[in-house]
Amino acid sequence: MSVDSGASSMSRLLKLAHKFNCFYLSGLKSGECRPFIVEGFQVGLIRPDVMKQLLKYPEVFRVTSGYVELNPAFRDYEERTAKVDYVLRELRSDKAFIALKGWRDECYDVKAEFHTESLLRMDRSATCLFGIRNYGVDINGYVRHPKLGLCIWLQQRSSTKQTWPDKWDNMVGGGLSVGHSILETAHKEAMEEASIPAELLKNLISAGCVSFYFESERGLFPNTEFVFDLELPLEFVPQNADGEVQKFELLTAAQCIERILTPDFKTTSAPVTLDFLIRHGFVSAENEPYYNMIMELLHVPLQTIYSNQRSIKENGQVASYNI
Amino acid sequence: MSVDSGASSMSRLLKLAHKFNCFYLSGLKSGECRPFIVEGFQVGLIRPDVMKQLLKYPEVFRVTSGYVELNPAFRDYEERTAKVDYVLRELRSDKAFIALKGWRDECYDVKAEFHTESLLRMDRSATCLFGIRNYGVDINGYVRHPKLGLCIWLQQRSSTKQTWPDKWDNMVGGGLSVGHSILETAHKEAMEEASIPAELLKNLISAGCVSFYFESERGLFPNTEFVFDLELPLEFVPQNADGEVQKFELLTAAQCIERILTPDFKTTSAPVTLDFLIRHGFVSAENEPYYNMIMELLHVPLQTIYSNQRSIKENGQVASYNI
Questions:
Q1: What's the average pLDDT block by block, 10 residues per block, for chain B (323 residues)?
Q2: Alpha carbon of A79: minimum distance to chain B alpha carbons (Å)
Q3: Whole-complex ipTM
Q4: In terms of DSSP H, where are the helices of chain B?
Q5: Could you tell me which CATH class the domain A31-132+302-317 is placed in?
Q6: Closest chain A residue to B41 measured between Cα atoms?
Q7: What are the residue ranges spanned by the domains of chain A?
């Protein structure tokens, strides 16, 4: 008897769950990354290539053997934001990182936990350099087809998008930018990306969230996606309004499973689609031997990874790190 | 600014998620328990009180400072089962453990992972002494009420049940016993516990699974529940057929949230109900500040807790433990 652990004996869906959790399953354990501390709280993880660049800015980043800390002398949210922004703009003009090529002029909050106060804001293109937790919103649009059963609307991303151009993606999705709530972002993206009228958005149902930890050449992605389901009328066809989508396609559940398994699907959107297919019974313990493993890999303990390493701040000094 | 971490500042639902994960969040970290190894695979965790009793049976259990191992000389599934059963029956007549008072004459499989071969079977009352992973099936029965919206059927457990008597519970639930598949167990329990006819069971939808790690005076419960949703006609009323349920009650979603928060609800069934309330939008990021934390606590990484500690078996000897 043997326990399957080699990639060859995995199911295709388990391999996919490993792919979008490549950092959780291997990078994290390599021990190469150091916690990024702001105001005594761990808010990120920093890879060696990024650490090397940050060493050039000792007045902003304190790099020790155990962690990287934002200068605790910075007084407040605005000062922290400005100092980091200055460094990032310089690194961008130095072409130090691929990630910064995609500068967005749109900021993400940097927080210890989702429900806690923001410590600073940072251009969204840069958060992956610091392993800052990212939060997004996704809408699974579907119809109940009289002949084909439950069918799912997917979008193909525009070829001009800075990240994942031309890849297939969920019907609607977007990152949670500074100052926007989850529901507000869902509504805004639904209108901009798919022209879904307010009347239909009344049927939007909150359906949980997925968490995973991906890594690419750009950086680290500890992502949590807040997931919504939206049943649409058979006759409704999504229409893009902001130029970020090249087309929409309605797929059967079986076709959708095949699509997320292709390299043409955006890796970091696959968890949302897979979670939808599981919640609606299309992927189940009957057809997927690694079902419960996959469920765990759709909800990896990001809070534990970061909060276990939370520091204790005493008298303005970082006193200890429990890593 | 501060990160909420004390119990006083938690939401009631986060406190509940901590309650059904009391072992995951504290016991596990105390380091008091030792891995239980069978055929080179970690299949459980053993508390000091259990270890003390097992020391009396050195021909069956090898207790070392790092782990407890079932004698690797036992040849096969039947021999391992018989040797452990002999010890358990003796411990039962010695009244060594509360858990064994509830002897069931019904066995659970002991495996390294859900999809792998069973290494032995063990009376279900005893698995919590060894921290063996438990698998169960739960059905959320609900109706779409024209005035009250989505309503949920709950059962009150019989006062004669060996575990959690009189407590409120999901409409249908049961453990996965040796030789029964998930779907088979769901159908069997639905008929026995709630007299749901085969015709209605055609609407059963697989909807994921929840994993949590609970501890009680009886022992350790690393549980995975395979979850099904079943929409029922308004006029259908569940009727118990096996004497294990004293009554059924139909609750609105708001009442259901309140019910799972009372001490009258079976703690280890609450994750299933909470997951249902989240998937159907009744608990969302709009009304629950710790929403994403709760989602992670409904899917704790049991596979990692156990498989990280898997041993490498070489030449019949346990070669190393990566704990």
A1: 53 98 93 94 96 97 94 98 98 97 95 94 98 98 97 98 96 96 97 98 98 97 98 98 96 98 98 98 96 97 76 40 35
A2: 16
A3: 0.92
A4: 12-19, 22, 28-30, 48-54, 77-93, 127-130, 182-194, 198-201, 253-260, 270-279, 291-297, 302-307
A5: alpha beta
A6: A3
A7: 31-132+302-317, 134-297
